[in-house]
Design brief:
The protein folds into two domains: 52 residues; 94 residues, no CATH class. It is built from nine helices and no strands. The N and C termini lie far apart (38 Å).
């Protein structure tokens, strides 16, 4: 089994567990081996740390073309270190709508949020790879020109 397939299977398992009742989830987790529990924890932690490492430029580039409810779901799914920087750089109408959704405490089902986060992570990874500035000068030039 490839690492990518194993990670996908583990994410599917986490997603399936999230849809169960607490009682069912506890019953299943009590019967897992220590190794299986470790894989679940490692997989969940890996995704979270990858999301924390997303750059503001890549996040803005991906989120600025999304509807407000998607942006809101991604930004409120965790305590991301890049959240404030992203909010400051969003277009004003989009920022206002995201703020309105936050004040209204709009939420999505956890499997939907998990799906959006996986898509966001994949897109930001491609964005960072494709648009990685070759030098500090290029990075400064990009920021000054208003391109993301």
């Amino acid at each position: 089994m490839t690492i990518a397939r194993e990670l996908h299977d583990t994410e599917d398992a986490i997603s399936a567990l999230a849809r169960l009742t607490e009682l069912d989830r506890r019953w299943i987790l009590e019967r897992l081996s220590a190794a299986a529990k470790g894989r679940l924890v490692d997989s969940a932690g890996r995704g979270s740390s990858q999301l924390c490492a997303v750059g503001v430029d890549a996040a803005v580039s991906v989120l600025q073309s999304e509807p407000a409810w998607v942006v809101h779901a991604v930004l409120t799914a965790g305590a991301w270190p890049w959240k404030k920087g992203v909010m400051q750089r969003l277009r004003i109408p989009l920022r206002m709508e995201v703020t309105r959704l936050e004040h209204a405490r709009v939420t999505l089902a956890q499997p939907a949020v998990d799906f959006l986060l996986r898509q966001f992570l994949e897109r930001t990874a491609r964005q960072q790879f494709v648009h990685e500035p070759a030098s500090r000068f290029e990075s400064l030039l990009t920021r000054l020109s208003g391109k993301s």
